[in-house]
Structure formats: C-alpha cells, structure tokens
Amino acid sequence: MITRDIIEDFFKNINEGDEFDTSSKLLWGYFFLDNSKSKLKIAAEELSKEGYRYVSIFEAEKENSNDTEEYYLHVEKVEYHDVDTLDKCNKELYKFAEKNELNCYDGFDVGNVITSENIVRK
C-alpha cells in the first residue's frame, strides 16, 4: 500500500530535481492489476466518467512461466497534486479497486504535460 510517508518521500525526491514543477499541473498515470481484461475494460469506462483518460491494457510481466496471466489498466489525468491530494487520490483508487473487485490498485507515475507549446520546432 502506498502510505503517506511514501508520498512525502516521493515529493521530496522529485522536488530535489529539476524535471518536474510540482507547483503546476502534471500528467499523472494510475495503474490497476487484474486477471481479467474485461473487468479492467469496465473499470476504464467507470474511470473515464470521473475524468480519467484510458491509455491501455497490457499484459504484466510474469516472474516465471507458470504464473497466471495478469493485466494492467493504465489511465491518466492532468491534475495538480501535493502530498495531501495525492494521498487522498490513492485512497480513493484503492477503494475503487476494491469496489470493482480488481486484484489491486498498483500505484502511480508522473510526467510532464506535453503540448504543442512544449515541442521545439526546428
């Protein structure tokens, strides 16, 4: 589970670098894991109603060849987060996974928002 302490460390680490401006909106990716692609597709539809954009469903890497197939759902949203709002968001996504009987909410990643203004033209 992603605890508040983990989120605090995450923000401390990214604020020490110059790759992200956490005072502005960023592109946040969220991941769910389940054995059923159809359950993940339904979850993606529900999340899209809440403003998330569907990115993909892809097969999870197996530790060994005998493992059952599992799939990730990746959704994203452009939004601002600080420690408090990301902690709240994660708690809501854990509840969403439980309510929709998914194996788990597996975490987040972050990236810069890419727009035509960010693209350098040669």
How does this model look, in words?
The protein is an alpha+beta fold and 122 residues long. Helices cover 35% and strands 27% of the residues. A 4-stranded antiparallel beta sheet has the order 2-3-1-4, with helices on one face. Helix 1 (4-16) packs across helix 3. The protein is globular and about 40 Å long. The N and C termini lie far apart (45 Å). Mean pLDDT is 91; it is low at 116-122.
Class per helix and strand makeup: alpha+beta
Rounded mean pLDDT is 91
- Sum up the overall morphology in one term: globular
Number of strands: 4
Compute the separation of the termini in Å.
Answer: 45 Å
**Widest β-sheet, arrangement of strands:** 2-3-1-4
Count of helical stretches = 3
Provide the helix percentage. Answer: 25-40%
Q: H/E element string?
A: HEHEEHE
Our estimate of the beta-strand percent is 25-35%
- Summarize the biggest pleated sheet: 4 strands, antiparallel
**Quaternary class:** single chain
Provide the low-confidence segments as ranges. 116-122
Rounded to the nearest angstrom, the radius of gyration is 16 Å
Secondary structure elements and their pairing?
Elements: H1 4-16, E1 26-34, H2 37-49, E2 53-59, E3 71-79, H3 83-99, E4 104-111
Antiparallel strand pairs: 1-3, 1-4, 2-3
Helix pairs in contact: 1-3
